[in-house]
From TrEMBL:
This is methylmalonate-semialdehyde dehydrogenase (CoA acylating). The keyword Oxidoreductase applies. NCBIfam families: MMSDH. It is an enzyme of class 1 (oxidoreductase). Transmembrane segments: none annotated. Its EC number is 1.2.1.27. GO terms for molecular function: methylmalonate-semialdehyde dehydrogenase (acylating, NAD) activity. GO terms for biological process: L-valine catabolic process; thymine catabolic process. The keyword Oxidoreductase applies. PROSITE patterns: ALDEHYDE_DEHYDR_CYS (PS00070). Coiled coil: none annotated.
Amino acid sequence: MREIHHWIDGKEYKGTSGRFSDVFNPATGEVQARLALATKAELDHAVARAAEAQVAWGATNPQRRARVMMAFVQLINRDMDQLAEVLSSEHGKTFPDAKGDIQRGLEVIEFCIGAPHLLKGEFTDSAGPGIDMYSMRQPLGVVAGITPFNFPAMIPLWKMGPALSAGNAMILKPSERDPSVPLMLAKLLQEAGLPDGVLQVVNGDKETVDAILDSPVIQAVGFVGSTPIAQYIYERAAQTGKRAQCFGGAKNHMIIMPDADLDQAADALVGAGYGAAGERCMAISVAVPVGEKTADALIEKLVPRIEKLKVGPWTAGNDVDYGPVVTKAAKENILRLVQTGVDQGAELVIDGRDFNLQGYENGFFVGPHLFDRVTPDMDIYKQEIFGPVLSTVRAASYEEAIGLAMSHEYGNGTAIYTRDGDTARDFASRINIGMVGINVPIPVPLAYHTFGGWKKSGFGDLNQHGPDAFRFYTRTKTVTARWPSGIKEGGEFNFKAMD
Ligand code: NAD
């Protein structure tokens, strides 16, 4: 069996724990490799070497560091297809979607080429008589990124780009489900000129994560994953005084007003609900049509679109709309939740439970599901399903619809479909959710804005990428300087003893 290890000090580092986790091919259900899980001692070793390497890297001028990012962009583009193939084979998402995953990470690296501008600091001339005041942005030292399975290129790139270009060293702990792309990215960064030891990829599970959280050397943790783990990491990181930003799960509502273009809304819902098998933190999992007429018409438009969805392996290229989910356990959890929906009285309009793909019977494929007449007390409404399951909650009015989204414990993304500017404006202004789409189903902000949810979708301060990332990965030092007035009226010519 092929083994996957760590990347420490610029080379593969064989793990010695004897503990491994299986990496599947989700399309076939086969184990394709086993991943070494790091011990605390291995993590501490990687951290110690990173701390040494960070000293010179932090002192390297920002423009030289940015040039490494410039070269990295070229290398990712050069190897795009190869990266996307590996990504699809471990995650299961379609080949075009895997390229999108890499592309949205690459855009953050492009943004990081401008890091010198963001690291400039501030200066006040003559803050007092003969006094100047200036603030510097300095790297934190060694920081950590802990990332989820669902974007194995994008989210590691969101972490490493800003952290490294700000002069930090980073310990990256990718998801144990699809670890190969982060390792490939680390090799490309070395080829781009990143000194060895500045980025260490340490694979592992809870044991490794806990070692990161307890490390006195690591100054900050950037986490993305499910809400219970986000909250755990946030709390435990704070106990050792770390800076932490922890992004969690989601339940994104799309409100469909009676004046919306229903064809456009139905197309958007199908893409945002079922794309990537629903394994996106910005997937729309709840449709909220306003008024019975809107709801009936929407369901009528959704059904034929959903029935046409093509589910298959990534090797079918553009011929599939979405692939398998990531593990057997994920599939079982989705089907369990679907059953609770049926048991609790929701109407299962499209039932994907018997879905079977010839030749891929052991793959982790889940057929598309559509629920109607879901109510807020049901588990399928309260919990994140993270699968190809769209729930429809009928609302009698706009106020009821916005109230639903506002009362939900998650607050990652949301969207409204309407032709009315006033409603859209009111929605964007009042909603207590971090990312809002107006006739846009998946409003993922571009690299130069910032990404982050509210409520239980995000713990800690500052968002990912954009200027916030540079605030998160640096700390401010402010200097107040007054110099004694010097000799300005000619030189002294006599040999002078020291007083
Ligand atoms: P996960 O929480 O299971 O794992 C995320 C990371 O935490 C992994 O690296 C994993 O090894 C580690 N981990 C898992 N269990 C742990 C434990 N008990 N103690 C310490 N560390 C642990 O999440 P996942 O299944 O990989 O990813 C899917 C989740 O991520 C979904 O909930 C999704 O909404 C969320 N997500 C959120 C965002 C966002 O920006 N808000 C983006 C992508 C994904």
